[in-house]
Amino acid sequence: MRSVRSVKGSEGTAQPRAVVTGGAGFLGSHLCETLLAEGWAVVCLDNFLTGTPSNVAHLVGRPGFELIHCDVTENAHVRGDVDLVLHFASPASPVDYLEMPIETLRVGSVGTERALALARDKGARFVIASTSEVYGDPQVHPQSEDYWGHVNPIGPRGVYDEAKRYGEALVTAYRSTHGVNTGIVRIFNTYGPRMRPNDGRAIPTFIRQALANEPITVAGDGSQTRSVCYVDDLVAGVLAMAASAHPGPINIGNPHERSVLEIAEDVRAATGSRSEITFVGRPVDDPKVRRPDTTLAAEVLGWRPTVRWAEGLDRTVAWFREALSATA
Ligand code: NAD
């Protein structure tokens, strides 16, 4: 993988500087942490809608790290040079975006435009966190980047899926109209430390339930599939995209497909839980299958996931054990 430092170019030795919108969220906080570790200065913009300052509390006070409380739909101005803008601000779990449909649409539209304008004004590389949800409930399997998707714009999930589709169109227009060096990554389900136990996504829900020896609630009969990527792999993929000049879209996700029931059983085993597995109704428009074709990421970025499911799950369970016992 190319070093993310190459984004800076060869003109100087100054410390490169990144802006991460949504930097206090699950993925954003890991990106901030890795960028700092790789020698970047990092400005984290977040309004704490679904993220929390505690996700980056360990970074506050480190040289080069700035945390700014700001809503990027209102303002995304940053003083000084910026070499890279990673636009990750957006509610991401169905529980969040169903509760905040307008905020989700606004951050995907107005928020994306403000972040793009920042990149344009600073001459920075721009990477947007798009999503596998742009494929909707796919009729093509696995999903490669040239598949246009199967999305219900007026279904409950449409606020998220269409915000991301609009975001991709806007990014493309800023590239062609203003010459911004843009990249689109389509992120598939990612898991790891700092997910919220109550964010409604399958893995944190199952872990929370298993650690409490409560029933593990699998939607439908659990035969629907997900392909889950450990957060460290995702970060490596996003930073490889940042270091390239490729416009994307490029899928970043783990192509190993598992049924939701299998995930629940593995969580039960990894936690040593006595929980029973129970079945509940499936949400509206819940996709039946989901698996990235990652050929392009491998070819263009030299990226492939390396963290095994058992290992990623153990690390995630260990983090949840500690986080949940601290709040008990
Ligand atoms: P998250 O909810 O943990 O993080 C999102 C962050 O954005 C939060 O800190 C939130 O407070 C912030 N935010 C929301 N609206 C904002 C606004 N108007 N101004 C400033 N900050 C705002 O979610 P996540 O899982 O870390 O997802 C991050 C990004 O990656 C999102 O854009 C999401 O769509 C995308 N993504 C995530 C996944 C995944 O599996 N986690 C999959 C596909 C795409």
TrEMBL record:
Q: What is this protein called?
A: dTDP-glucose 4,6-dehydratase
* Localization: Golgi apparatus membrane; Golgi apparatus, Golgi stack membrane
For this UniProt record, give its keywords in alphabetical order, as a comma-separated list.
Decarboxylase, Glycoprotein, Golgi apparatus, Lyase, Membrane, NAD, Signal-anchor, Transmembrane, Transmembrane helix
Membrane topology qualifier: Single-pass type II membrane protein
The UniProt entry's GO biological process terms, in alphabetical order, are:
D-xylose metabolic process; UDP-D-xylose biosynthetic process
Cofactors: NAD(+)
- List the Gene Ontology MF annotations in alphabetical order: NAD+ binding; UDP-glucuronate decarboxylase activity
Every copy of the NAD-dependent epimerase/dehydratase domain together lies at: 19-253
Highest rank taxon of the organism = Bacteria
Q: Which cellular component, as a GO term, is one annotated location? A: cytoplasm
